Amino acid sequence: MIRIGVLASGRGSNFQSIVDGIKEKEIDGEVVALVVDTPEAGAIERAQANGIPYFIVEKKDYPGKGGMDRRIVEILKGKKVDLVVLAGYMRIAGKELLEPFRGRMINIHPALLPSFPGLDAQKQAFDYGVRVSGCTVHFVDEGTDTGPVIEQTAVYIGDCKDAHEVSERILPFEHKAMRKVVANFSKGKYVVEGRKVRYEARL
Ligand code: GAR
User: Fold this and answer.
1) 3-class SS at 106?
2) N or C: which end of the chain has fewer CB within 10 A?
3) pLDDT at 97
């Protein structure tokens, strides 16, 4: 049973996919904390609906460098989190947040990395005119969406009319990939060798 901490900024559908994966016993774990960086995040309602403790940590309350990340680490450590999941968390994890959880922090990105890192990946893919995009679950490192790749799913987007349709098309595949990776974390370990990630199930 792993203890999961989720960081989110928005509606929280990827957070929900983890909650559902736990309910349906695909994931052997518990979400022990949701941290959001805005009181507007829809993820809060999902936490409330599922009895999950949530914490609002706003940048404005931690103006100095690293202060916000240190507060988040305090929360996650207080909850004895094993795995930190960035599920639509729209901030870069600074070194204060990254170091204590290096190798135990993952992110979902709505494109096939290393294509289209950063913000608005679906719009970047649509504007570029690629026929295939998708999603990536990867370890977090100090770069922007540069950590070792754990899981990817390719999605055909060649007939999408706009970036919104691209987002809608990719989202269900994000949920599946997220559930699968978190389930794997709960039942074994990912071993990182350079840029390569290999999975070892627990016997
Ligand atoms: C998802 O599409 C996720 O991949 C993306 O934000 C959305 C959050 O949706 N993340 C990023 O773009 C990170 N750079 P959700 O709040 O419903 O999970």
Assistant:
1) strand
2) C
3) 97
What pLDDT, in 10s, does the model give residues 139-184?
999 999 999 999 999 999 999 999 999 999 999 999 999 999 999 9
Distance, CA of 153 to CA of 171 (rounded, Å): 11
Coil, helix or strand at residue 183: helix
**pLDDT tens sequence across 63-116:** 999 999 999 999 999 999 999 999 999 999 999 999 999 999 999 999 999 999
Q: Find the 203 Cα to ligand 1 centroid distance in Å.
A: 33
The phi, psi pair for 18, rounded to 5°, reads -70, -45
Report which ligand 1 atom has the smallest distance to the Cα of 117: 14
**pTM (two decimals):** 0.97
Q: Which atom of ligand 1 is closest in space to residue 8's alpha carbon? A: 16
**Whole-angstrom distance, CA of residue 168 vs CA of residue 41:** 19
CATH for 2-201, options being 1.10.10.10, 3.40.30.20, 3.40.50.170, 3.10.129.10: 3.40.50.170
- Residue boundaries of the structural domains of the chain: 2-201
Ligand 1 atom index nearest CA of 13: 17
Best residue among 37, 85, 108, 146 to mutate for probing ligand 1, ranked by most atoms within 8 Å of CB: 108
